[in-house]
User: Fold these one by one.
Assistant:
Number 1:
Amino acid sequence: MLGENFRTLIPPVGAEIRDRFLTEWKTSHAIQPVSSDHVDIAVGNDGWTLPIPLVKTSKGWHFDTRAGAGEMRLRRIGRNELAVIQAMLAVYDAQREYAGKDHDGSGVLAYATKLSSSPGKQDGLYWPTGPDEKPSPLGEAFVTAGARNAGQSGYYGYHYRLLTSQGPHAPGGAYDYLVRGKLFGGFAVVAWPVRYGDTGIRSFMVSHAGQVYSNDLGPDGAKKAAAMKSFDPGPGWVKESP
């Protein structure tokens, strides 16, 4: 029905999203005509439609798996980008929480210089904790979020990296956040797609000011983000609403 590559389109048995689909199917399902030769299958009561459309050709009705794969990619990108905006705000909140405590015994309050802490230290926003300990500001999902290996899945399809200065287009102008190896003056983080055009399109930035910005850096966005030294939302960067 879906062709020889159906496994790339359907979640495996036991997957949560598959079970959720079956539950919604039992609740409600209907055919929604788009045109005389194109219909969508609506499932559940929230307006969700199956990404693989039914189309009519000279051979009759069939599932258009090529169009379905494209629609699934677009939906995945949309979900990831919305999730990344929230992830950026989570980093913002985590940095503010982190800076409220002395984590190295120096008596100095500063922002974290890493997303994930070094072994045995609390120099990042995540560190392992026991069942009776207060959780670290960020969750374990950010352990590999900063990995630049394209084989890593990142977090919601994105890699993340902290920035230690800001440029002339940032509120307050250009200056360094680092003073004697500690982040005093502020913080910023940039996120870019693990696979451009597949896990995401736009790249994102946020600083201690709390405003998230986005920009389409193109297929070479990973290189541009890796070379980025400062939070500098100049031309091309637009404000995002949470």
Number 2:
Amino acid sequence: MTPEELAARRDRAVAAAVAAGRDLGLEVADGAVLHDVFSVVVHLRPAPVVARIQVVVPPGLPDVVRAARQQRELDVVTWLADQGVAVVKPSALVPPRPLVRNGFAMTFWELADLAPDHQPYGGVDVGLTAPLYAVLARYPGPLPFLAPFNSGLPQLLAALTESELLSAADIGRARREFESLQRILGDERSFARAFPSVSVQALHGDGPSHNVIRTTSGILFSDFEDVCLGPVEWDLAQLGPDANAGYDTAASALGLRRTDPAVQQVMDAARTLQFIGCAALVPELPILAGGLAPVIHAWRSASPRA
């Protein structure tokens, strides 16, 4: 997409959110864009409500799967807030369910009072996530196993085409490696056979240490769109040994399981494939290309996974 097309998509998303907010009874004069990457995040001014509108999703992902993903996030975050966890909460001013307006799927959240040092994707010490996992381990609701890997990545890999980022050989290799990993990660039972001593639990799904909002009252965890069941190593994938060591220290103090190096290696490989699959989204989000190129180069230079 050209810059003009990206701007037009953003403007359509804002208009859809403003119209949806008004239909829900909110006082909305206009929408102020707070963030625009995979989702457009809009403050529905002057209401203390933020709409998060999905604009980039895996091609071919069924609407029912997308809606279920959004509802899981709302359900889990509502439960976490009830447990006293510092999270960005769903807005109490609208029903806690996803809404589609003019083709845009969206959810609604409380407006956070950002701290002066807030930076999008600015991470926090991984050890700070251990208390979050201690609570997530008690989540009582059903969750799919490793949803980002099993629901979304297959569509991304199927949509890959030759480009400046990937050759036909690269695409074939990525698909073969996915098939190999799926024999281990395709469901909870398969994972348990491969790693019988490794527990699974509710996860953030996309690395909570880098999905935080710095507010004037402290750190809030956010963006639980990929919430799922799995080993905690999935959320630590590609963060490196120092991150694992920091998490292990904090986890041990809370009586949680330490990370398993063999599982971490598998999760790192699976996360790399997720990055490679995102090459299918570059036409819709060209900014991805620069970040994906070094990941793909490193993967291409490594020995293929059997």
Number 3:
Amino acid sequence: MTFLGPTTALCRRPAHRFLLGLSAGCLVAAAVTASAAAVSTATLLEQMTDLAGLAEFPSPAYTCKQFSSYDQASKSPAQEWFANNDCGQYLRVEDRAGRKEHVMMDAAGPGAIVRIWSANPAGTVRIYLDGAEQPVIEAAMSDLLGGKFPGLPRPIAGEYSKGWNLYFPIPYAKSCKVTSDKGGFYYHVNYRTYPAGTEVESFNAGQIKSLAARIEQLGARLASPRGKASEFGGLTEEYTVDVPAGETVRQEFEGPKAFVRSVARLEAKDREAALRGLIVKVTFDGEGCVEAPLGDFFGSAPGVNAYAALPLGMTKEGDLYCHWFMPFKESAVIELINHTKDLVRLSGEIVLKDHAWTERTMHFHAKWRAEFDVPTRPMQDWNYLTAKGQGVFAGVSFAIDNPVKDWWGEGDEKIYVDGETFPSHFGTGTEDYYGYAWCWPAVFTHAYHAQPRCDGPANYGRTSVNRFHVVDCIPFTKNFKFDMELWHWNATCKVNMAAVAYWYARPGATDGFKPIRAEETVLRPMPVYVVPRVAGAIEGETMKILRVTGVAEPQDWANASAGRHLWWHAGMKPDDTLVVSFDAPKAGKYRVFGRFLKARDYGIHQLAINGQKFGEPADFYNPEVRPSSERDLGVFELKAGVNEFSATVVGANEKAIKSYMFGLDYLLLKPAE
């Protein structure tokens, strides 16, 4: 394919044609389902990789909602809206067969589970369908979500950056209940509900064996989501185009057709700046549907950050691919707008097919918003998407510039569909929505979600995450709103945020996005991270653990001396003790100072040195994570060399989550006069 370059210089930004016309006679027609089939495990498995199906409003129709362990103290924006006790919340606890079962989900059918996530799966999970007394699935939750359940291997299920995800669909005709015989964990259960009378074939355990070939094929597709060009059919056209600084190039297409695949390779003097500064705009049938920086549109920003998902991805060599299915009835216009100071060259290929437009067909949408120097307090709901019309939400990619090591993503997703006054998706943490957990900085990739970039140390720097809703897409008939809480551990810093929302909508739909301004596309430099250190401090994370009940280990904490502290965080109860050692340079009397961590799930502890208690037990509860002031612990007779520091659990503040945690930042020794 030959590109036409700029032909004239105008005072206004000129637009130039960059693709030649395509021959419709070479294209392959896409099939359109004439009528809805019964819902079954088999049909849902097909939908897990059917990106073309996202472009047709569902038939039979359904809603998609979420059960979760969100803090139920959150009642409204005026009542505990940012409450954060998101662990161990259940619908109820039932007595069954002599055991306690914590009910995570209880829904009337017809419907289908389409995703289960947990940060810390516990106990035996049981899934009861259609009022049966015996579960259709009974397994260790960590096996079912971790890819170890027979017949449901990775990547259909698996642990990714500490998040456990199951994407195997479980349909039910009448009802579904999900329980665990252990409590104390985080969870999401995403599920569909179909209209009464919809024909649904309930899942049974034998289907894992009878559908083994399909499940194996599905697993292979999810494991290699980029696929091959030959799999897409249609007509492939190659292109190369130069976009001068400050200019626009343009190409028109005639319908009815659909874009089914594209690959882009970018060359520029500053590639990272160009991926943010080159804007892709797409107009379908006269409606502006896509407007985003090129790199953000392809699911990770800024720069090239390798990952492979089903609809989008990037290779380490810099190939950007898109598999979103984009139909149009009469026309499509693609524009590339260069907001950078240098020429940008784009090359690659586009694949089109003929596609029959129906009364259910929807346009693809992808739009970007960014906000800079956003203070982390007061907390707020940051909007990903507000849309009106009929459509289907299909995902989001998100990028944040974080100037500190502290965790930026404690906030929950809140999704409102068709005028809901309370969200039908209320999450448990930003990373939980994106399918990982525990603020984990390790990059990962999966067909449906990824963390392609996290600079570090810890959560400092630029981070990019995404999640794509395919079998768990969220239909709406009138309107849709997706907010994500900005809930940062650091109450005094400012962050930069950018997001691309992906959705489908019938013609005439509207959204709340504003046109992208050139100044918004300029990358802000990250401040250099300086590790804070207290002179002479004996760092808690470097002390040798002599005795402990439960788990104690170093944890990154931006406000700590040296950026870490010793975190005692699991398996303890009142009267349990943590004992660590520290060295004194010589025998004698020392005044000892210490600094500790305070948070909502920290306990009351009796502190001691060499068995000598100092003062009354200390209460380390605080609604937010923060350091204590440096405490004067008193004067102690220390031995030359090894001495012992201990913390014993006494209890917890009445307002605290009863986890009894403890954090030691440092001790500081000063010779006593």
Number 4:
Amino acid sequence: MFGVNRTALTAATTIADALADPQILRHEPLSGRARPQSLAGGAVGIALLHIERARTGHGDEARVHAWLTHAASEPISAGPNANLFHGAPALGFALHTAAMPRYRRALAALDDKTTTLTRTRLATAHGRIGRGDRLQMREFDLIHGLTGLGVYHLHRHPTHPITGEVIAYLTRLTQSPGGTDDLPPWWMPVGLSGEPDADFPLGHGNLGIAHGISAVLALLSLAILHNIPAAGLQDAVARLCEWTDQWRTDEPAGTWWPGYLTVEQARSLAPPHRPRPSWCYGISGTARAQHLAGLALGDTARQHAAEAAILATLRNPAQLALLPGIGLCHGQAGLLQSALRTAVDARNTAIAAELPDVATHLSAQLAQPITDPELMDGAAGAALALHAFGTGAAPVSPWDAVLLLG
């Protein structure tokens, strides 16, 4: 769409070649996000780089198979710790993006496991709502919760009943249970870690896309764009837009939304601080969620506001300086990929003109020796963003669906 950029493609190729052999992870601890079945920090995430390159004709299936084999080298979790970023759903998503017949049987088994665990969590979530208990982060968020599982099902089998069941739950999540509580139903009684926190004695409202309501807004908007039939879906998106609009701040330096709110801020409509423009809590995530909502509702004013927010960030050196890292989650790769996805759908053609500067800076950073190979904060994710920019189009494999960018 934007034309091929050879410099970015070369930088991405250099990283992919450096990450050719899964043995580079042999010294990584087999725990937490570094485990092979982790999408964020393990082999599953790095496999996505080789999958996208193979599907665009820049890589080969042998590397894909080597990384997926390593990802499946330990028992794959389908238990309490399984989610879009770990275990059966993570590996299943990677096999889906690979789109290779050789993985059909394994993928079917992972589909079954993911559907079973999704139904178990839906039952628990509906029970919680029925009791009137407050929402917990791990119930619904993108990284650990049902929004992430919804991403899996929407892309893997959009017409399967389980996809509609997740969308129905998220729609219900936006509905006020009534009573005298003036906080929205997605308010959480915990801190930013998802655990009780003395700094947040009355909890917080999370607008981020990694752990907050922007993820729900993005997924429900994508469900509309995918023509998923669900009662009340457009009303749910409209409710989330109305709430987030309260916190939209328009400044000469650009429009922005906060990453989170305290009770005091929510009840007094006190302006919170502006977050750095990262994917997880900043413009790279919140503006894209608003953009998707605008596309879903046919709200051109919302689309324009989101595009203007991204554009202002790309043109603001002070904002770019707040992202010294390379990663998708906290760094410049997340901004580049979000801006590229927005530019593909944009009414404003100016965004595309700003992408080369971000890509050039990111390429220069990646010229340094690799210290972190992972997807979310490391070289694999940065290389994927550069590859997308270098090809001049949205990904062929839907790898950035895990970021809810498309």
